[in-house]
Amino acid sequence: MSLHGRLLPRFRRLPVVTRLVLAVALTMSLVLAGAASFVYWRVRTALDQQLNDDLTTYQRSLDHAVRHGAQLPPGPSGSLQQVLDAHGRVLDSSEAIRHQMLLTPAELGSVARGATVRHDIGSLLLITPGTLRLQAHRVTTGGRTRIVVAAVRRGHRDEALRELLAQLAFASGLTLIAASYVGYRTARGALRPVERYRSGAATLADGTQNLRLDVPVDRDDEITRLGHTLNHMLDRLQTSAERERRFVADASHELRTPLTLMRAELDVALHRPRSAGELTETLRSVDAEVQRLIDLSNALLGLEELGSTGHIARAPASLADLVDAAVTPHRRTAERAGRELVVDAADVTVDIDARWLRPAVSNLIDNALRHGHGTVRVAATVHAGVLSVCVTDEGPGFSPEFLPRAFDRFARAEASRTSDGSGLGLAFAHAVATAHSGTARAGNAANGAAVTLRLPC
User: Fold this and answer.
1) What's the pLDDT tens digit per position in 140-153?
2) How many domains are contained in the chain?
């Protein structure tokens, strides 16, 4: 496995703050190294240019003196010179390098062939005496070949570069430490809300109820948006938990009554001999309670499906056909009760979810037939892109005490839970209207109760 393959998993296992600090330190190291290299290169180039200019000027004066047989002139401070023949024998030299061979045999041969050689003697970082920069050039005079070597000391130049390297290393080190500290503090500060959110989530996992994260309201950064998202998730979780508790409580409460009645009927039938007519009546009573259980279960499941997903599938549908399909199952009930069903539905196409709206309207009609009197009227109109379905009757209407809770689950105008109906019809209609981004309103008209659904279509 490569070094990269071994280090990357270890790096990923480190804490986030540590990884961020290491990333900042590495990035800053590269930036500082690049900046220091650029500064060093620029300063060294300037110093070398000055040194080379002095060396070239001194070389020219030496060449001129050798070519004309004159005495070798003095050069700049710290300069040295050496004159060799074609075989490398020293003909003239500064005292400090009289016995020192400055050129290698290869360089000597190259200069003898007309090339100009320039190189340094001594290193920059290892402080040694006698560091030089020399330049050798061939000069022909009187048919004889002379090799003129001009040299200048590099002491001041090397000292300046060593000092520059030390200053750059010191400044880069301080900058790297400061950047790493700032990166550490910034990462800790940025991740502190995340740790707070994690602690809150751990508290929630321990069973704490109604927990909400403390999210600043005056910010709009990634962490703040994460907090709002988590709070929204907590709201949804709490709503879901409350809905489940309510569903279980409502179901257990409402299912208990028909199950108790069924058990009582069966106990009576089993504990003493009964005639065929009595057994038939018992079975009919049990059948009625079973049907009530089925209706109640279907209503609860429908409400739960709407409440948990809020999903509807809109599709074009004929409003007249939809209302007719909702009214038809109730016509025989109305005839047996000697009541009239009047329908006034616009012949238009609406964009709604008929799978949910049809039973919602049917529930409103069923409530009007159960609890109202006289004619039941169903009016369905569309105006400005809003569908309005209103169901009215000619009964006593809703009592003032009942209206504020008319759309609550299992709310009944009668005090007894054994009264006809489950108390879910209006709640279901309200849930359907809400799922369509609409509203449901219950009130009293001139002659009785009126329930209106308004849905954008």
Assistant:
1) 887 889 999 999 99
2) 3
